[in-house]
Amino acid sequence: MLGKALKHLPREKIQVATKFGVVKWESEGQRLYAVKGTAEHVRACCEASLKRLDVDYIDLYFQHRVDTSVPIEETMGELKKLVEEGKIKYIGLSEANVDTIKRAHKVHPVTALQMEYSLWTREIEDEFIPLCRELGIGIVAYSPLGRGFFGGKVVDEALPNGSLLANYPRFNGENLEKNKLLYTRVSNLAVKHGCTVPQLALAWLLHQGDDIVPIPGTTKVKNMINNVGCLGLKLSEDDLKEIGDAVPVDEVSRLGFGCVGLSGVYNAPLSHEEGCSIIKEAFNRGITFFDTADIYGEKHDNEIMLGKALKQLPREKIQGATKFGFVKSESKGRPLIEVKGSPQHVRACCEASLERLDVDYIDLYFQHRVDTSVPIEDTMGKLKKLVEEGKIKYIGLSEPSIDTIRRAHKVHPITALQMEYSLWTREIEDEIIPFCRELGIGIVAYSPLGRGFFGGKGVEETMPNGSQLANYPRFNGENLEKNKLLYTRVSNLAIKHGCTVPQLALAWLLHHGRDIVPIPGTTKVKNMINNVGSLGLKLSEEDVKEICDAVPVHEVSGRREMRLLSEYNWKLANTQLK
User: Could you count the other beta carbons within 10 Å of the beta carbon of residue 152?
Assistant: First the structure.
């Protein structure tokens, strides 16, 4: 087909690339693949391609995949001969590793690498692109729209019957639902830039350097014309970062770990050795997201403890979140809490947290509560600067109002909200969650077990002396007795599902969407392991409804927050206008 098209075009103005190396056949109804890179196979494939294309030479000839059973020097040796014979002009490799590239380049200069590269596939940025630039090798970016995902496949369009995309994990089930949130974020940015999603995704790639050549494909002329429109889109460095940040490639675990309890809030504080041990065990169980705050523990003990744990774990695989904004004081022997969100306070808190955590950057930095006396634009402006300086990666808000979210998001994209969300606290379902999904903002669900209630606190276990739970209305007197009935209902359903109450309560939350990340905390390894068990619990829509109905929110007795924090409820969190 391409050969026929070339007959209608000026050959001298066309650069043709083709590839060799992947061999397919069928056996017992199954399609099988292999890779061949022998010298004989290289020559046979090249001559066959020249004949099919009906051309005298191939401009750029790629080895489609590396044959690891054949020294790359042998494959390259034959390709070099084909260059000398004038049958090919330039040599390329596809999906080669760093060592193979270096060895191949010594035999004959490699002109280009064909590698998968898009907004959601960026693994080549750390090693491959720098090496290629050092050697003068270009990058041909295949699947630059993420196999059509950023062209709207399965988001704006249904997947065609029999499409191979069904074989790709990113296009299936829960993965797809989670990835749709990324598409929403990019879609919102495309509106901001007055372009389409494919144009923005391709322009982002083009702005990575003149040595990056994306090769989007399509079966529709209108899509091709739309793609070409990306060439006229100009993006600043800030734009590029904003677009890249909209599709974070760091994978956050489905379940996080709330570290607050390790420093003694609901129980006695643990030693740093004990706390680090639990954090490390949580990581070993698949948890990679750990949440703390500068107010947790005496003298910021919680951040210091998490920092020590991070030294014993692979930092690049951890997403650490901390928070700023709360300031503790006393008046006439009574504890007081106020909130500060001034730009000066933001910077001072961030730099202090970096020092206590002993890290170069904070993955996700939350404003712990909204300072209504400071325009959110001022607070966000300083947070945006901290992102630009590399001190924080992503920005979050905790307990903000709809208006505050909207205004904050205009200054810089909000990655996540931290909101109380559990079986007995569901206020955010009507407004906050739909609005966040519209903007592509995730939800970090704190107190996902109702401050331990659905873990048995105050029901199967007595509250420790001095526990702050005594300050929460739901854990006191008649309120607690009424709420125990709700626990009993959930306990009966847990028996039905063959799991524990905490597992059922967490699974119920997890089934509300991939954008919901609960962060249960505990001081006991056995409880953490039990919580992780929620990830394997499958619930149907009927199950989710039955669990929900077991805890009607109008039957929950008592306010969710202690009096000290009631004025910082998200419903009251509108800030002054700028």
Answer: 16
Helix (H, G, I), strand (E, B) or coil at 289: strand
Cβ burial, residue 172 (10 Å; 0-12/13-18/19+): middle
In the chain, DSSP finds a helix count (H) and a strand count (E) of 19, 18
In the 8-state DSSP scheme, what is residue 533?
A: G
> What are the residue ranges of helices labelled H in 220-271?
221-228, 237-246
The Cα–Cα gap between 445 and 534 comes to 15
248 and 415 Cβ atoms separated by less than 8 Å:
yes
Sign of CA dihedral 400, 389, 411, 433: negative
Residue 9 lies in a domain: no
Q: Is residue 464 domain-resident? A: yes
- 307 shares a domain with 214: no
Count up the domains in the chain and report the number: 2
Residues 227 and 279 in one domain: no
Same domain as 555, residue 434: yes
Q: Catalytic: which of 61, 90, 296, 472?
A: 296
Pairing label, strands 442-446, 416-420: parallel
- Are 271 and 235 in the same domain? no
Distance CA 320, CA 258 (A): 11
Residues ≥6 apart with Cβ < 8 Å to 70? 36, 37, 38
Reference 192, options 232, 241, 146, 242; nearest CA is 242
Q: What are phi and psi of 289, to 5 degrees?
A: -110, 120
User: For this structure, is 296 an active site residue?
Assistant: yes
pLDDT tens track, the chain, 578 positions: 999 999 999 999 999 999 999 998 777 777 778 899 999 999 999 999 999 999 999 999 999 999 999 999 999 999 999 999 999 999 999 999 999 999 999 999 999 999 999 999 998 998 899 999 999 999 999 999 999 999 987 787 777 777 888 778 888 777 787 788 889 989 999 999 999 999 999 999 999 999 999 999 999 999 999 999 999 999 999 999 899 888 877 667 889 999 999 998 777 899 999 999 999 999 989 899 999 999 999 899 999 999 999 999 988 889 999 999 999 877 777 778 899 999 999 999 999 999 999 999 999 999 999 999 999 999 999 999 999 999 999 999 999 999 999 999 999 989 999 999 999 999 999 999 999 988 889 999 999 999 999 998 777 777 777 677 778 889 888 999 999 999 999 999 999 999 999 999 999 999 998 889 999 999 999 999 999 999 989 999 999 999 999 999 999 998 888 776 777 788 777 888 87
Give the 3-state secondary structure percentages of the chain, helix then strand then coil, rounded to 5: 50, 15, 35
Q: What is the CATH number of the domain that holds 58?
A: 3.20.20.100
Same domain, yes or no: 266 and 231? no
Q: Is residue 10 part of a domain?
A: no
Cβ count within 10 A of residue 174: 12
CA distance 230 to 199: 4
CB atoms within 10 A of CB 63: 29
What gap in Å lies between CA 167 and CA 33, rounded to an integer?
Answer: 15
